[in-house]
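Before relying on records like the one below, remember that each one covers exactly one chain. Contacts with other chains, cofactors or solvent are not represented anywhere in the record.
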Amino acid sequence: MQVPLGVPVNDPSKVCKLRKSLYGLKQASRKWYERLSKLLLCLGFVQAQGDHTLFTHSTPDSFLALLVYVDDIVLVGNSLSRIDHLKQILNSHFGIKNLGLLKKFLGIEVAHSSKGISLCQRQYCLRLLEDTGMFHCKPAQTPSDHHFRLHQDTGPFHDDAAGYRRLVGRLLYLTTTRPDIAFATQQLSQFMACPKACHYQVAIRVLRYLKGAPGRGLFFPRSSDLQLLGFSDADWGSCPDSRRSISGYCFFLGQSLICWRAKKQATVVKSSSEAEYRALASATCELQWLQYLLNDLHLQCSSFCSLL
C-alpha cells in the first residue's frame, strides 16, 4: 500500500508491505472469505455446490448449516450444543459478536412463532417512504395500472435522473420479500438511462401501494411438505418499444413461496408458443438450481418436482 500521509520516508518510490488485510482494500473481502472458508473446511464443513457461501456439516445425530454474507453469518442447526461449540471456535479465531436468535439480517426482519417464520422489510419500506416524502401519501390498491404499458415516451424528462435510479434500486432490493412489486419494478428498471416524468409517476404509484401495507412480506409455515412446485408464464410481445416478451416464474416449497422473477426475454420471438417455451426454459434452469441447493442441504422432496 502507499505510505500514509505524515509518515516520513526517504525514498518516495517505496511502498508498505501489508502483513494482514485491512478494511477498505479491494483484496480484504477475498482474504477474509479465504480464511473463513479454510477454517470451516478444516472443521469438517462441506462447501455447497449450488451456493459457495453456504457451508454444511452433517453427522448421524446433527446437522449444521452456515451462510456467509461478507462478515455477517447465519448459523442454523438441530443441535444447540454443536451450535454453541462452533460459536466458541469462531470467537477464538475472529472475535465474533453473538446476536442470539436471528431477528434481522441485511435489512430483512425475521419473526418467529409457533406456526412459522415470517420475513418482511417494514423498517426499510418506511424509511424509503420517508426519504421520498411519501410517508403521508394516500395508499393505492395496486402497484401499477394493468391497462397502461410503460414505453419510451416523448414527454419531458424527469428533472432528477439520479434520484430516479436510486429509487428504482431501493425498490429492487425491496422485492427480496415483496414479490407483489416485482413486475412493476422490472418495468421501471428499463428506463434508468433517461427516465421521463411519466416513468417517475409510475414509481410514485408503487410507493403509494407500499404505503398501504409496509409490513407485508413472506410467511414460511413450520408444517409444510417438501415438494417443489413451479409456475411459468410469458407475455408475448408486450414491450411496445422492442416487441420482446416478458417471462415470469415462481416456485413454492410446499406452501412457501421461495423464488420468483420477472424479466424481459433477450430476443424477439415469432409466436406465443415460442415465448412460452423460452419462459419454461428459464424456469427449468432455476428449478435445477433449487434441486442442487436442496441436495446440498440434505433435503429430499416428498414427490417429483412439478413445473406448470
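The first helix runs from residue 28 to 42.
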